[in-house]
Design goal:
The structure holds 2 protein chains of 2 kinds. Chain A is built from 15 helices and 3 strands. Chain A is mainly alpha-helical. The model of chain A has no long low-confidence stretch (mean pLDDT about 80). Chain B has a 3-stranded antiparallel sheet with strand order 1-3-2. The two termini of chain B are about 25 Å apart. The chains are: A mainly alpha, B alpha+beta. The interface of A and B includes residues 41, 103 and 111 of A.
């Protein structure tokens, strides 16, 4: 977590719970907005990125978390919605130049808010801020206008078209490469496996490209773009300070392993399981029959995990729906792991022409590792579920 | 054949298409004098050229990337603002585009007037 976000969250923790979740979140958002604006102004003044020491000095000048919490508790809070919007726009912008674009947008929006307040002599309402943000458009659209890219699809849907295309093509390429890699591990000639993977990427990639384009073309023709834009409500923007948004790398990394796991679980690819051997002697490891009874629950959990990681790519910030799914998945995974723990062994070694005693010892060590892993897994999943329950409870309140 | 009324969204699309290129010319011309986003928009609006905030800032960025504008962050009324002005290349481009505009404007005026006469 960056120092600015850490400072704002430290201040948030000092706001009494009696203020209620919504106001606490808004105050934390306003503190974050001000700290970011100060860091941006300093960055522009120096015309370079700030060092860690400079950021720390800036934060110290802004006030300790206690001072910040006290200062913001005293007055009305309204910048939170703007900051949520800017954070969402920034997520859709390429890294170089993003902070500069966001700084300019922040200046334009807050300047407009101040002008309206000066004209009316009253604090602007959240509804008016939401109305102002609607003139800039949904975050993906506002950020997409900076790309200058000519799109196959109209302005309203273009910001969704390219991410969707990248995800679908990414999955196709990752799955094709994973299958090729496993084929090589299983002894297929590397050149042959490589050529097959290349052909698969081309064939499936072209099909995926055509299908995604067709789907968006149909959406475009049926007027979904303007409808989506009109239906967008700035008040639904996520609050990043509930938890930092998931990075694109994390989401894609997790998705890659979800796909690999699912392909292996349904038997499309075979994971290497030979421990040692030649023509006369061989040892292979297999999952025991204990897993068979849990085949469906594990498949459902695998699919759920993949769905959540795809959703993270489109919506990286925290949301109540994401939290509910996460709790469900972690509870399910803990139950499955618990059921597995009740009945071992989990790994069987099939021996042909090798000394059975030595192999039993290896299988026993592996089963111990699985047992410990299951226990650790349960603890991690339950802790993760507990954190999400707390966040969800705060959100519900 | 019965007369079909023009669908409002078709008319709106045609109007936007026609204005798009003209807006760039208006922005370049207005930036012969240094100014920042809000004032620029207000000045254009006062002269009858409406431009959406969501479109203005990306346009300024694009023109700067193309080397037609230069920009600088500066403090004004206790706020940091990004000021834009026409670059040397921008001034040359403005001359060419303004000439083109006058010629086109005159030609289209003639055609429209002739059609209406």
């Amino acid at each position: 977590m960056n120092p600015v976000m850490r400072h704002a969250r430290a201040a948030e923790r000092l706001i009494p719970r009696s203020e209620g979740f919504e106001r606490r979140t808004r105050i934390a958002g306003a503190i974050l907005a001000d700290l970011r604006a100060k860091a941006d102004a300093e960055r522009r003044r120096l015309d370079r990125d700030l060092t860690e020491g400079e950021v720390e000095r800036l934060l110290a000048e802004a006030g300790t978390p206690e001072q910040l919490a006290q200062r913001y508790l005293g007055g009305p809070v309204r910048q939170d919605l703007v900051e949520r919007y800017l954070a969402a726009v920034e997520r859709h912008l390429p890294k170089p130049g993003a902070s500069d674009i966001v700084a300019e947008l922040r200046e334009a929006i807050t300047g407009e808010i101040e002008r309206r307040e000066a004209e009316t002599g009253q604090a602007i309402s959240d509804d008016d801020i939401a109305g102002l943000l609607k003139t800039y458009g949904p975050p993906a659209l506002a950020a997409g206008r900076y790309s200058g890219r000519k799109a196959l699809i109209g302005e309203d849907l273009a910001p969704l078209f390219w991410p969707a295309m990248r995800i679908v093509l990414g999955i196709v390429i990752a799955a094709s490469l994973a299958i090729g890699l496993l084929a090589m591990v299983r002894g297929v000639d590397p050149w042959q496996a490589g050529a097959q993977a290349f052909n698969r990427v081309l064939e499936l990639g072209l099909m995926a490209f055509a299908q995604v384009t067709l789907v968006f073309f149909i959406l475009e023709r049926t007027g979904s773009g303007p409808r989506l834009r009109a239906a967008w409500n700035p008040k639904s923007l996520p609050a990043d300070h509930v938890r930092p948004p998931k990075s694109l790398f994390d989401s894609l990394f997790n998705l890659f392993f979800d796909v690999l796991f699912l392909l292996a679980w349904v038997g499309v690819v075979d994971l290497p399981n030979a421990l040692a051997g030649d023509r006369e002697h061989s040892v292979t490891l297999h999952l025991s029959l204990v897993w068979d009874a849990l085949w469906w629950p594990i498949l459902v959990l695998g699919v759920l995990s993949a769905v959540v990681h795809v959703a993270d790519i489109f919506h990286p910030a925290w949301s109540a729906a994401r939290a509910a799914l996460s709790i469900l998945g972690r509870a399910g995974a803990s139950l499955v792991a618990g059921a597995l723990l009740l009945d071992g062994p989990w790994i069987e070694a099939r021996v042909d022409g090798v000394d059975g005693t030595r192999i039993d010892a290896i299988a026993s060590i592996l089963n111990s590792i699985v047992q410990v892993s299951l226990v650790i897994g349960i603890l991690i999943w339950l802790a993760g579920a507990a954190i999400e329950i707390v966040r969800l409870a705060r959100w519900v309140r | 054949m019965a007369h079909m009324p023009i669908e409002p969204n078709i008319l709106e699309a045609l109007r936007l298409e026609m204005r798009r290129g003209a807006l760039v010319l208006a922005v370049l011309a207005a930036l012969r004098r240094e100014t920042y986003g809000y004032t620029l928009r207000a000045e254009l609006q006062a002269r009858g050229v409406e431009i959406d905030e969501g479109a203005l800032y990306p346009m300024l960025r694009r023109l700067e990337t193309q080397g037609l504008l230069t920009s600088q962050w500066r403090e004004d009324s206790k706020r940091q603002k990004r000021f834009y002005r026409l670059s040397v290349d921008g001034a040359a481009a403005l001359d060419v585009l303004a000439g083109e505009w006058r010629t086109l404007n005159k030609a289209i005026d003639d055609i429209v007037e002739e059609g209406g006469a």
